[in-house]
Amino acid sequence: MGEEGPPKDQQGPPSAEAARAETRLKGHLGHLTDAEEKSFEEFRLLCAKEGYYQPATETTRASHDDGTLIRYLRARKFIPQEAYVQFKDTEIWRKQNDLDALYEKIDIHDYQEARSVYPQWTGRRDKRGIPVYLYEVGKLDSKKMLAYSSSTSKSKVKGPSPSRMLRLFALYENLTRFVMPLCSAVPGRPNPETPVDQSNNIVDISRVGLKQFWNLRAHMQDASTLATAHYPETLDRIFIIGAPSFFPTVWGWIKKWFDPITTSKIFILSSHQVLPTLATFIDIENIPAKYGGKLDFECGKMPVLDPQVRACLDIKGGVEGEKSFLTAPTRWIDSGDDEEMTAVGVGSIDGKERKEAVAVLHSMAVRVVSHAKSMVNSSRPATAGSTTAASLTKLSLINPPVTTLPGNTQPSPLPNVDIGKSAEGNGAVSNGVPPEKLAMPLPPPPPPMEMQRTKTEYVTPPSDPSEIKQLG
Predict the structure, then answer these.
(1) H or E segment at 353?
(2) Can you give the pTM of this predicted structure?
């Protein structure tokens, strides 16, 4: 079967402008317009009035961080009433499925099994500090997917949703409760005044046949529907790589699973557009080697933390400890000051719940807030000081040995995939600008004005600093 061009409504590579920090920051915390700030305040008041949001008090933290609330507003174009309806539905859904308990108690084998069939964090971030995920669809053969969908969950927590969906919920909780807070808190990233609340995804569909797509449609629709309904605006963009000639047919199914805003974030790249486009958004060191970068990562491997992130972490337990930190359910406890967050390993093994400190993040990023263009409802008062992160002492983590996790997350490597056999092999650009124009240098964002140093709330549900003492 010969190659064909993309359908008319299929997007080619985004313009270089899309990679600029200023472009991403529109509608985000710390960069709201006056009208958006007004909508934000109306939304919070409405959610509080109806009992779905508890503002911070002198002794308690807000029930939801501001970044989470603003995601619902962005998804509904800053219309408070529409955002409230989606937020309310999500809060009811979370309670029905006992999401907080699910993440705390999910069987780690179940969690790792789910992790193997969905997008995986590479351990790296793009130029704006957003985590980069990789999804190699070709590795999901029918035998593997049948085993996953028919397997029985060992987790104690049950809910009205099917077992496979509960496991998927836990992966989204990992994104919002582990990966995003970590990427937000690491110092040195651009625009520390704005929490990281989205992900960048590389989806490789090389050598995936039409039958395989058809067999995977329910699996992929589960994830897309869930994200749209209950984890809105967690997607920055999706780069689809290696599209076969029949992809226009598949695209007809896929675009129905997303709302128009999400669909506008999906970009299909031909073989000659892959590296130039990815390099516009992601440093070459953080692009997987099979796509022309320097990162030794494939789906199934343990995330490879970038040096800047790793330097800010004390991970206990050596190699096994790092495996636990990166591949098992983990969440953060904010210590209550500007110095550190503690990573707590949760989940259960053979029916026994674990709850142990597995790492400490030190030298946290300090949020820099512009009074003129920001609305911040911090649960703690802002403190005056430098506009850059303080140099903090590296703290050691002294705890009992880390729990050894079941299973092996390092499968044997697969053969290299030829991404050259993708749609648009004739070198045409379907939309956007020519690839050689994409990798232009990005000008730094303008320096903010009227700054004040304050701590950012990154975690929803809010963490309890006193919990650290209970870990021993």
Answers:
(1) strand 352-353
(2) 0.79
Residue 390: band (very low, low, confident or very high) from pLDDT cuts 50, 70, 90 = very low
Backbone angles phi, psi at 187, to 5 degrees: -70, 160
Distance CA 80, CA 454 (A): 27
Tokens matching residue 101: 């308990």
3-class state of residue 197 by DSSP: coil
* 330 SS3 class: strand
Would the pLDDT of 33 be above 80?
yes
- Please report which helix (H) or strand (E) contains residue 352, including its range: strand 352-353
- Kindly give, in sequence order, each residue whose CB lies less than 8 Å from that of residue 415, ignoring residues fewer than 6 positions away: none
CA dihedral 318, 319, 323, 325 (to 10 degrees): 20
For helices 210-230 and 247-254, what crossing angle results, to 10°? 30
User: CA 190 to CA 236: how far, in whole Å?
Assistant: 16
More confident residue, 46 or 339: 46
Residue ranges with strand state E in 99-242? 120-125, 131-136, 199-204, 235-241
- C-alpha closest to that of 241 among 298, 189, 190, 201: 201
Report the C-alpha gap between 373 and 368 in whole angstroms: 12
Answer with the residue of higher pLDDT: 250 or 399. Answer: 250
pLDDT of residue 155: 64
- The residue whose two tokens read 């892959």 is 274
| Contact yes or no for 461/99 (Cβ under 8 A) | no
Residue 373's Cβ-count burial label (10 Å; 0-12, 13-18, 19+) is: middle
Contacts of 162 (CB under 8 A, 6+ apart): none
